[in-house]
Amino acid sequence: MFFSCPTCQMSLQAEPEWVGRIVNCPGCGARIQVPSLTESRGATGASGPKRGGWEESDPSNVNPWIGLGIGMGAMVVTLLLLLVVEKSFVGQVYWTGGWVNHAEFILFFWGLGIVFLKWRKTRRQGDALLLDVLPKRFGDRISAANVSVFIDQLYKLPPHLRDSMMVNHIRKGLELFESRGNNAEVESLLNSQSAIDANRIASSYALLKVFLWAIPILGFIGTVLGLSFAMASFGTTDLTDMGSLKTAVSSITSGLATAFNTTLLGLILSILLIFPMSTIQKLEEDCLNDIDAFCNEVLLARLDDGGGGAAGGSHDSALVERLVEGITGSQREFIERFAETTELCRTLADHLENRALAHQGKVEDSFSTAMNVLTARTTAAMEETVRTAGEYMKGLEKGLRGLNDVLEKLGQKTVVVQQVEKRRWWPFGRRS
């Protein structure tokens, strides 16, 4: 929308969602408030159809603080129920976790509040699909003669129904068709708008994905704190004192309960949050796909650019020819580059093969030389061993012969063994 600065009268423009914001004039620097659509038309003196769109709300993003308020209300109710069943297993899992479990509950119910608000928006987007936004009573074909009737019909819709992706897509397409009279440009606009809305839907889940990451991490933090508390209690205990030992064991079990309960609760809450979040995300994506299908199958099929399409026929043909020539040239260049790359790869492969063969020959030569040297050294060692053994056997044989001769001589003589008494002399001439 367009408006003028009240100080310097400079013409300015802003998106409809900027209505009410305080901005600085780029010309004189004065602080001004962005006017509403009605005020901006009156200031510019616009005449003719009261068009120019309407203030569009974000089709997917919601106010996270409202979601926090809804989540806190649900959390209070849940805590009251947990107080009633405090002695049960479920109650003990929560109440023994300390501040970590409270933090997990806050993030979980905050995420549920955001999911609830997104579900309400998605339901409203789905309700808009039931509207007959292109009545056939105005004509089966939408041309330059009757397109204004269809646009006026959209502006007559109630504000809570016309502010939807479905109606906004069709309004923008029809208004572009009214001003340009070209089906191709309308199709391009619808594709771009669909991509923008898809990006908005994807980015709207950023905070929920952070919660899904933070909840299990908080559970692991509780596990570490519980184990640290248990080990610290046991480390300062006198193991010789039975009373102190019982107290330490009690502290250890309490710390382990805190450790495991926080992790268990974090994992369960993550699972309980990811299912509704994934369901709402799929509903939003399906709704956008249905809108795209309606625009392609109904809106574009009924658009008739007539003279606008014929007038631009020669221009479009020239564009198509240039496009075909560009594609053909690109394909030819790709084939040439591919052939060059193939030849280079073949050359490199041949070079690698030659180097491999040369390396293999060197390895075989080195191995053969090493084997020859090893064989020669082994043969020499064996020959030296055989020679030494032969000399040893000869010496042994000679010794045996000499022993036999001695034995023969001893056999003919008598061997007398005598014991010689040795006298020991002592001082002073005494002996024993």
Please give the alpha-carbon distance between the first and last residues: 145 Å
Average residue-wise pLDDT: 76
Q: What general form does the structure show? A: elongated
Largest sheet: 2 strands, antiparallel
Give the H and E element order. Answer: EEEEHHHHHHHHHHHH
Q: Low-confidence parts lasting 5 or more residues at pLDDT below 50?
A: 41-49, 308-315
Question: How are strands sequenced across the largest beta sheet?
Answer: 1-2
How much helical structure, as a percent, in the residues? Answer: over 70%
The Rg value, from CA coordinates, equals: 49 Å
β-strand percent reads under 5%
Number of helices: 12
Number of strands: 4
Going by helix content, strand content and strand pairing, the class is mainly alpha
Protein architecture, described:
This protein has helices at residues 37-44, 64-84, 89-95, 99-128, 147-155, 159-162, 165-180, 183-203, 206-235, 242-302, 307-311, 313-411, and strands spanning 2-4, 11-13, 22-24, 31-33. With 432 residues, the chain is mostly helical. The chain has a two-stranded antiparallel sheet. A two-stranded antiparallel ribbon has the order 3-4. It is elongated. The model is unreliable at 41-49 and 308-315 (pLDDT under 50).
Describe what is shown at a glance.
By secondary structure, the chain is mainly α. 72% of the residues lie in helices and 3% in strands.
Give me the secondary-structure topology.
Elements: E1 2-4, E2 11-13, E3 22-24, E4 31-33, H1 37-44, H2 64-84, H3 89-95, H4 99-128, H5 147-155, H6 159-162, H7 165-180, H8 183-203, H9 206-235, H10 242-302, H11 307-311, H12 313-411
Antiparallel strand pairs: 1-2, 3-4
